[in-house]
């Protein structure tokens, strides 16, 4: 379906690296409410059990620098060291058993969109000092979709998506076509961008609200099914089975009103005899099925007509064994055979293998034996 859609990774965290001439920060993508590891390891795997390192979140717009994690030869924020920023208390820990391998990575639990931003991991007393740069970005969770208003003719849908970086939001139908929608409304709360997008749909279908964060190659969507009693989805047609009487065809329309008219037509627009349509109710609308049997090979279409005299249609090509096209083939074969025989006789006559001989008797006079005859025959050159 679905332009095809990208889905968010189902694991707790997703890691990708973005560099600019080897100097760019390591970019980490995380879904809200999951846990994420911010990596920081010395390349020489030097033992840092007795070392000092410090994690900070870089100051952002309208926010000061945040104290994330502090470690000094076994003393850290989780065992009595003061100074940790309030929003990180109880959520950040390190990997104690990995310190001897130079691993100063930390894990942040139950991440929030407000955690998005730039982080530094600093070893100020190494020679030379080392600093690692990390960018944490919040992958947008599934958008939320609600019905604002619905009538028999249309539905007003609202989609809300949020994340940081700001997601692009669009509505699509079941074929992946982008739908015209109202202008998006954007607000910022708690370090996250909230985008609201409304669309009005007029036919029964499955619709997708798609949120895309291009900078982190993340896309996620939410599907909702809409059934509108005053409008129906496009009919679908299929051939069910070939019987002694011909080919059985079926036309199906989902989410239609009970007064939607269906009919089968041939390629010339002639209406075909069909069974009585069957209706099954679903959520205030109806699924309608109309069947017909055809006996000739050709193109057939199912045509629907609504209250406003609007038409939709679907077409199918059917090949029926033993139909008139088969008799046409037999007639053509006979004609070809006769033509071949005629040509063969002409060739034999031309080559002298067969000599046409025509004889006609003269009119009887008084000296003849009293009879006048006309004769025509073929004889061989030998006269036999």
Shape assignment: elongated
Strand content: 35-45%
Low-pLDDT sequence parts = 1-22, 359-384
What count of helical segments does DSSP give? 1
Rg over CA atoms: 42 Å
How is the largest sheet built, in terms of strand order?
A: 1-2-10-9-4-5-6
Mean pLDDT: 81
Can you walk me through this structure?
The strands form 7 sheets. Strands 1-2-10-9-4-5-6 form a 7-stranded mixed β-sheet, with no helix packed on it. Helix content is 7%, strand content 45%. With 384 residues, it is mostly beta strands. It has one helix spanning 324-350; strands spanning 13-15, 26-31, 36-38, 52-57, 66-72, 75-76, 92-94, 106-108, 117-123, 130-139, 144-150, 155-163, 168-172, 185-189, 192-201, 205-213, 218-226, 236-243, 246-256, 261-266, 278-282, 285-294, 298-305, 311-318, 355-360, 374-379. β18 (236-243) and β19 form a beta hairpin.
Question: Outline of this structure?
Answer:
By secondary structure, the chain is mostly beta strands. The chain is built from 1 helix and 26 strands.
